[in-house]
Design a protein that fits this description.
single chain, 258 residues, Glutaredoxin, four-stranded mixed β-sheet, 9 helices, disordered N terminus
Length: 258
């Protein structure tokens, strides 16, 4: 049985000693959605070898503020072009989320029911906002999604409504900013703090308009291969294989061969 503490750390069970790959992410960030779709798609290939962990970094507290509807309208089409499996549709709900903290609290509460449940719920939240146009800043919407996901609702409500979730989310975000120098989302990282780069082409936005876009680093299956490379970097280094009776490493006799 897997045990998870209040900080989201696996303390017992098959994931306790696995190397980890972290994604510091925000729920209104379209680039985090694209990254999550790719990471979750590749994750089963590394089951039992690498633990993928989504870490909370609420931008309204530690970054650039709450969701900016105009800026997202600029970014979403570019993000949608880069990952066909990340479904995007126009946001048509009456209310625009002024906070995503309820989404973070709900994700933390769901993750206490196990990694697999947490990963599924994470993607449900992102699809709810970007593909279904649901207001993920409303607590009642979080309860609806929890019911749709088949969670243990009594356990979920106890955590979601008790204050522990918010405290854990804010502490994790603080840890990201102060100890790991996270400055934006998504930030991919190994557990030792080594930062990685997800293959995405980001725009530069100035005065409410896109003025440039980075070169596209990959397309189609090549993006999944690049995502696999992120998991590979989390794996322990393998010792170089040696042939039977091979000479042990040491100075090359007679100096370098030209």
């Amino acid at each position: 049985m897997t045990a998870v503490n209040s900080a989201g750390e696996v303390t017992a069970g098959p994931g306790a000693s696995l190397p980890q790959l972290w994604e510091w992410a925000e729920y209104y960030c379209p680039w985090c959605y694209v990254a999550a779709v790719r990471l979750h798609k590749v994750r089963p290939e590394y089951e039992g070898r690498v633990r993928l962990r989504t870490r909370a970094f609420p931008l309204e507290v530690y970054g650039g503020g709450p969701p900016d509807r105009h800026e997202l309208a600029l970014e979403v089409p570019l993000a949608a072009l880069q990952e066909p499996e990340a479904e995007f549709r126009p946001y048509t709900s009456d209310g625009w989320p002024t906070t995503t903290l309820p989404a973070f609290e709900a994700a933390w509460s769901a993750n206490q029911q196990g990694d697999a449940i947490g990963h599924d719920f994470d993607l449900r939240l992102r699809r709810a906002f970007f593909a279904e146009g649901r207001n993920i800043g409303q607590r009642e919407v979080m309860l609806e999604i929890a019911a749709e996901a088949g969670l243990d609702l009594d356990r979920f409500r106890h955590l979601f409504e008790g204050g522990d979730a918010l405290r854990a989310v804010l502490e994790e975000g603080r840890l990201g900013k102060e100890d790991y120098r996270v400055r934006g989302t998504p930030t991919l990282m190994l557990a030792d703090g080594t930062k990685l780069r997800h293959p995405l082409a980001y725009p530069t936005i100035q005065a409410g308009a896109i003025v440039s876009v980075e070169p596209l680093p990959c397309c189609g299956q090549a993006c999944y291969q690049a995502t696999r490379a992120l998991f590979e970097q989390a794996l322990p280094a393998r010792p170089a294989a040696q042939a039977p009776n091979a000479r042990q490493p040491g100075p090359h006799p007679g100096g370098p061969t030209v």
